[in-house]
Amino acid sequence: MVQPTQPAVWPDEPVPLALDTAPVPEYGSGSLADLLPTLAAGQGVPGLIPSIPELTPADRNCVFLIDGLGWEQIKSHPDEAPYLTSLLPTSRGGTGRPITAGFPATTATSLASVGTGMPPGAHGLPGYTARNPETGELMNQLRWKPWTSPRVWQPYPTVFQLADEAGVHTAQVSSPTFEHTPLTKIALSGGTFHGRLSGEDRMDLAAEHLAAGDRSLVYTYYSDVDGKGHRFGVDSDAWRGQLMYVDRLVQRLAEQLPPRAALYVTADHGMIDIPFDEQSRIDFDEDWELRAGVALLGGEGRARHVYAVPGAESDVAAVWREVLGEQFWVASRDEAIAAGWFGPTVDERVYARIGDVVAAACDDVVITASVNEPHESAMVGMHGSMTPVEQLVPLLEVRS
User: Who's near 375: CB < 8 A, 6+ residues apart?
Assistant: First the structure.
């Protein structure tokens, strides 16, 4: 009897990651975009929805955002951050759980989500760099280059503006460097901006402004944890030193809270160290397969927007899935939108800013661009994707 021919089995043939395995941020119930609307709604600001149900309203709210200090980093460093560690059980209204940053987990996108109370698909800052459909150029949304009108790029009012109009005492306390930047204008403006150089001065002034109104909404920010992580890595002595310093800053602010106040400590993203080897760092500028049919490479190493030459979109998607599909979630623009990566909806003006192909890292790997992005390609610590180490951020709480 003739046996039926069995199909060939190729055990080493790559199997692309299924898109439904990507851990989509908790938009609408537990993301950074939900934080300020929840706090301001509890202060009586009209038109806002309290989307994080675990939080209890307070008359005076202060948000301290520590750039780059993800949930996993705090949990991994109890000795360097004893005060922050003691607050872990308070996270997300006493549930001891984190919230999510949003996709991509990067500063420009996250700060816009915080300030506008909207996910990336609405506020329109979908990555570190994104294509401007009007000019065809890549726009760096952190540094705002090339220049474009801030109010055209992001037309919605911030939560701070809505709170200020509703009579809430509203203030931002940060580095003087950020006072007049376009990102501050479109994401964090409303009320008054106060620039202070030292972390201690920021904490003291934030406490003063928190006490200045019967209802207050105050935002303060510290960036050097992120900076040391990028340059030296999230387990370096320099990074650990910054963590120890910011731990003291949080305690300093917490000890000055006026009555009827709540302090929320959060972050814009976590961070992961990427080894300097060819397996972990795939150089787009040296890879002819990945470059084929690509007009522009946007985003950042762990969250790439890929803009194809017109007509080559499906071919680029197929090649990127074939080459990277075991290590990255690779989606077409429409697939990423349908999966909710950028929020429940995407505004029409934002649609073409998203890459024809979107690639989000699952493994400890990045797509660098050594020629066009030499500074970013040399970083040790990276972020951007939807893995827990990048995506999960604290929402630690102290009440007076």
Answer: none
